Sequence to fold (109 residues):
Amino acid sequence: MKLITAIINKKDEAFLSDILTEKGFYHTKISTNGGFLRKTNVTILIGIEDNRLDEALEIIRHNCKKRVEHIPSFLSTSGAMHSLNYNTAEVVVGGATIFVTNIEYFEKI
Ligand code: 2BA
Fold:
């Protein structure tokens, strides 16, 4: 048995969850925050038999899009009034960040 831990954009969560349910993949969603952007994302846990791993990964790949986020890159002062200038940098956010781990033991009580 495997456990997929997938960190995804919250904009993809509802649709992905619907498809996983439709295809019979039990899953759990946790509201999480990225350490870098500090924005809310969603972590999905999917416990599955080994022979369905590829199918689940394909579903995630097809339903999670990369997006560009803009973040303030630095702050400076300029001009007689020392007004603040914000520049922004582009950050490409996945898609999905996926970890797959082997499960030694599984039981539902
Ligand atoms: P965040 O930590 O908020 O990161 C958002 C995006 O910012 C990342 O997108 C990446 O493009 C950039 N980024 C993150 N850390 C960076 C750094 N130290 N220097 C420069 N740029 C950086 P993704 O790589 O697609 O990651 C999306 C989210 O997936 C992350 O949100 C985080 O919540 C999670 N994640 C990514 N890699 C991870 C890892 N190795 N372990 C745990 N969580 C991870």
Remarks:
- DSSP finds two helices and six strands in the chain.
